[in-house]
């Protein structure tokens, strides 16, 4: 399956918020306390989405037939979690695969596609974070070759910081 990224536009904000809400509900059913604020997002989270869309950082993940598989935010810097960094990196946030496509290896294919695109731009690292108490997600990223390089305490969680050299 070919993966492509389609820029999310301001008119798509409600679709983005709906994808977050669906994912939060799915995660809750798995008894994982992660992303539950997306069920009824506070204003700062909505603003975070709006800023990401305005900055052209949010993308729908689609097949070559324009079938929507989910979404992802890809940033050139992440001051909130990582602060100022010297090495060129791409920061992956909000990787959401729709329920119908879970368990098919799409998350790793999306990350691989982001890595290929980043390498074309002479990017040194892929970076992402995961809520530390979501041990399943942390193990998943480690299996994909990401190394834990730090922690970041946030108002709602403590997050592990991961990077992978390209």
UniProtKB/TrEMBL annotation:
InterPro entries: Acyl_CoA_acyltransferase (IPR016181), GNAT_dom (IPR000182), MshD_Acetyltransferase (IPR050276). Pfam families: Acetyltransf_1 (PF00583). GO terms for molecular function: acyltransferase activity. Its EC number is 2.3.1.-. Keywords: Acyltransferase, Transferase. Residues 3-166 form the N-acetyltransferase domain. Gene3D superfamilies: 3.40.630.30. It comes from the Bacteria. PANTHER family: L-AMINO ACID N-ACETYLTRANSFERASE. This is GNAT family N-acetyltransferase. It comes from Pseudotenacibaculum haliotis.
């Amino acid at each position: 399956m070919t993966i492509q990224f389609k820029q999310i536009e301001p008119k798509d904000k409600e679709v983005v918020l709906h994808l977050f809400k669906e994912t939060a509900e799915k995660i809750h059913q798995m008894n994982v306390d992660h992303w539950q604020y997306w069920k009824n997002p506070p204003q700062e989270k909505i603003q975070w989405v709006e800023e990401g869309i305005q900055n052209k950082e949010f993308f729908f993940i689609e097949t070559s037939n324009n079938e929507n598989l989910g979404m992802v935010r890809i940033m050139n810097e992440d001051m909130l979690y990582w602060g100022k960094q010297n090495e060129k990196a791409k920061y992956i946030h909000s990787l959401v695969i729709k329920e119908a496509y879970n368990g098919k290896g799409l998350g790793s294919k999306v990350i691989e596609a982001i890595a290929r695109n980043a390498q074309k731009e002479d990017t040194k690292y892929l970076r992402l974070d995961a809520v530390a108490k979501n041990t399943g997600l942390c193990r998943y990223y480690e299996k994909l070759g990401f190394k834990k390089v730090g922690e970041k305490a946030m108002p709602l969680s403590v997050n592990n910081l991961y990077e992978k050299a390209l």
